[in-house]
């Protein structure tokens, strides 16, 4: 091993130096025989063409990305809907998410995509989380685009997007029967930073650079970031416009040549510049210096490579042997080489690490054995404490109903209420380790609704849309019923009406399982929603210290949220979406049953 490693270091070192010297010397000598004026002029032209071509290809790629959206039956159906068809708009907007998502996934540079129909339909989707979305400003932005005659059925590029730091790629959607009759607008918000990354990778020698301006003289890109977004000097802009596709000079820029070309696709003009002195610099001194330095460097490198290889092989071998023994469980220390250099320091650090690891492993092992049982008991007690915090008011109200029915009349209603209550109590206080599934939770809700029928003096059906394939997936006990009860308490404060609905749905992605409880009740204002979301984020820290919610109804949600996190981890739990006068949607996020099995406690 000693000889092999030293030989490899020596040979690789010599090959790299020799190959570098030969390549640089031969290439430099060959390039010096050509006419530098023509070469740099051709180089400027080629680089400008390549940059424009790559930029146009980059932008055209998003024009191709719109084909799948334009040809989607969902888009055509949405744009053909009569004006103010609320139900159709809602259904089409949900279906539109499936149209947008493939484009957003395949094009992560797109931050936002939207379709605005002249019939009042609107659908948007985001590739990033936008903390503050100015809906009014967005509507004004869209109205401006509707009035812009330059925007037609082809993809139009606007260098000032609705979102800061973005371009807007927009096109009007034509009617099926007429290419001039437009029914809506489709747009992308594209991160301009992606184009900046593409442009920054283009180099024009030591002092060369290029910049890009639009047809109004606004600078879209410049190596000096402070000039981006500003207007190009009037004289310079006139010179650029008057000298397209040829070499020229700019006023106030002595000793430099410029070349500009305008893109027919984007309408942008790219201007490249190089130093005249750099073009004409003789290379004879470079060739001579390269030869002398190359020979000296090769000799010196060969000697250093040999010494370097010998100096590292022996300590490395000692460390290798020590690590091999440590990997087998034998805490072996490596003897010092006596050189007192970094290798000896490395060996000393390794020996210290081995000693500390040996001590720490022993301590951790002993401590883990002592604390494991106590930790499990503590978690079990905390879990059971949270589970027992379920609000008992419902049970009290149910008992009052039973008493009223018993006094007034003898009927089968008492039997139904008591039987449903019995099943619910039995389900709630179970402490065995039996697995709880989605169908168990739905059955629990069934008995709950049986009691609510008598409590509200009317029938009310919950719309369960969970696919049958998910019925045997695992859940935490008592998660759905508190959410449904919360809807009756707070979403319908003035009583149940025929228009009220509660929808329970579920879906999966690659790793997680989601269950939602959605209503069309009174909803929450932004401030209350923010308070609730904050409490859900901090519920783990405050759950054992504060059991009184800041506003009525949050303790049931916090209880369910904490129990889910205790079973699955901090990344899971509840999230709430709500809008005043529209309704509330609570989403339960859990790992998929294929990855984890829940054991109820």
Automatic annotation (TrEMBL):
The keyword Disulfide bond does not apply. It is found in: Cell membrane. It is a multi-pass membrane protein. The chain crosses the membrane at residues 9-30. The keyword Protein biosynthesis does not apply. Residues 310-362 form the HAMP domain. One of its GO terms (molecular function) is kinase activity. InterPro entries: Bact_2-comp_sensor_kinase, dCache_1, HAMP_dom, HATPase_C_sf, HATPase_dom, Sig_transdc_His_kin_internal. Keywords: Cell membrane, Kinase, Membrane, Phosphoprotein, Transferase, Transmembrane, Transmembrane helix. This is Histidine kinase. It comes from Paenibacillus radicis.
């Amino acid at each position: 091993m000693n000889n092999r490693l030293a030989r490899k270091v020596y040979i690789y070192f010599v090959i790299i130096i020799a190959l570098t010297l030969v390549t640089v010397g031969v290439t430099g000598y060959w390039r010096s025989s050509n006419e530098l004026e023509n070469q740099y002029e051709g180089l400027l032209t080629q680089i400008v063409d390549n940059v424009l071509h790559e930029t146009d290809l980059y932008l055209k790629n998003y024009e191709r990305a719109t084909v799948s959206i334009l040809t989607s039956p969902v888009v055509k159906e949405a744009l053909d809907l009569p004006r103010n068809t609320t139900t159709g708009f809602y259904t089409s907007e949900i279906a539109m998410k499936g149209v947008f998502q493939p484009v957003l996934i395949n094009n992560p540079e797109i931050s936002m995509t939207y379709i605005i129909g002249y019939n009042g339909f609107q659908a948007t989707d985001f590739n990033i989380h936008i903390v503050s979305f100015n809906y009014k400003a967005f509507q004004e932005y869209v109205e401006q685009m509707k009035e812009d005659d330059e925007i037609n059925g082809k993809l139009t590029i606007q260098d000032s997007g609705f979102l800061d730091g973005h371009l807007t790629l927009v096109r009007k959607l034509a009617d099926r029967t007429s290419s001039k009759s437009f029914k809506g607008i489709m747009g992308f918000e594209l991160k301009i930073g992606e184009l900046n990354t593409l442009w920054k990778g283009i180099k024009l020698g030591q002092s060369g650079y290029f910049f890009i301006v639009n047809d109004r003289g606004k600078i879209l890109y410049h190596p000096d970031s402070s000039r981006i977004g500003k207007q190009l000097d009037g004289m310079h802009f006139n010179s650029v416009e008057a000298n397209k596709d040829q070499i020229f000079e700019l006023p106030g820029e002595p000793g430099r040549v410029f070349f500009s070309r305008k893109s027919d696709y984007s309408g942008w003009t790219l201007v490249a510049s190089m130093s005249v002195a750099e073009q004409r610099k003789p290379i004879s001194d470079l060739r001579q210096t390269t030869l002398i330095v190359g020979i000296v460097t090769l000799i010196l490198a060969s000697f250093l490579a040999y010494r370097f290889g010998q100096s590292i092989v022996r300590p490395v071998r000692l460390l290798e042997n020590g690590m091999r023994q440590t990997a087998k469980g034998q805490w072996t220390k490596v003897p010092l080489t006596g050189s007192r250099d970094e290798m000896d320091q490395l060996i000393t650090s390794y020996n210290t690490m081995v000693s500390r690891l040996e001590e720490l492993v022993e301590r951790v092992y002993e401590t883990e054995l002592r604390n494991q049982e106590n930790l499990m008991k503590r978690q079990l007690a905390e879990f059971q404490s949270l589970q027992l915090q379920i609000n008992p008011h419902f049970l009290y109200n149910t008992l009052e109903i039973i008493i009223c029915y018993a006094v007034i009349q003898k009927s089968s209603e008492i039997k139904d209420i008591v039987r449903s209550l019995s099943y619910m109590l039995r389900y709630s206080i179970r402490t065995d380790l039996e697995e709880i599934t989605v169908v168990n939770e739905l059955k629990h809700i069934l008995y709950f609704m049986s009691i609510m029928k008598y409590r509200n003096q009317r029938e009310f059906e919950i719309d369960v849309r969970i696919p049958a394939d998910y019925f045997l997936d695992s859940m935490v006990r008592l998660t759905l019923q508190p959410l449904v009860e919360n809807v009756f308490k707070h979403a319908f404060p003035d009583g149940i009406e025929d228009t009220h609905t509660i929808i329970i749905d579920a879906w999966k992605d690659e790793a997680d399982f989601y269950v939602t409880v959605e209503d069309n009740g009174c909803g929450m204002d932004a401030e209350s929603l923010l308070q609730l979301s904050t409490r859900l984020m901090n519920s783990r820290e405050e759950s054992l210290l504060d059991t009184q919610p800041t506003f009525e109804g949050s303790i049931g949600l916090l209880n369910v949220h904490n129990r889910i996190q205790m079973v699955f981890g901090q990344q899971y739990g509840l999230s709430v979406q709500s809008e005043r006068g529209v309704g509330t949607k609570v989403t339960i996020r859990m790992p998929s049953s294929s990855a984890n099995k829940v054991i109820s406690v």
